[in-house]
Amino acid sequence: MALELVQGPVKIFERDVETRGHISSSGGRVQGQINSFRAVTLDMGGQVVTLRHQDPIVVADGDWVVAVGTRKSNGIHSSVFANRNRQTRTHAPATLMFVLAGILILLGIMTLIFLIGVFFLAFGGLVLFQGNRMRQANAMLDEALSRPLPAGAG
Questions:
Q1: Domain with 66 in it: what CATH number?
Q2: What is the number of structural domains in the chain?
């Protein structure tokens, strides 16, 4: 799926907090992991855009928002976005993904003789692909933010 850039004044449809995770117990010991994401569904120039991030999303009706994401059946889903009125933005961790991909690929090459390396290589390739998409999304957002706002916006 190709990345799309959308921008314009927004109208908020819904604010939500998504919580995912698991908790398990065995032998009197409880462990688990729970993550919460904030989600805001917006109308941006007639398109439905959902912004998701771990940090609070600062946006109000009428703000000029720039978002980069992928088109799904229920709109565009984005985790890389910027609010030009409030001077806030998110940044995808592409460099971290490239480092992780390098470690996984190196580990895969070293363990290739045991055939488990094939899985490390495949997973490293997937992480490399995701890191490249994050880098592209950051570059698209930077390019859009380098242009001036249209007359009468914000």
A1: 2.40.50
A2: 2
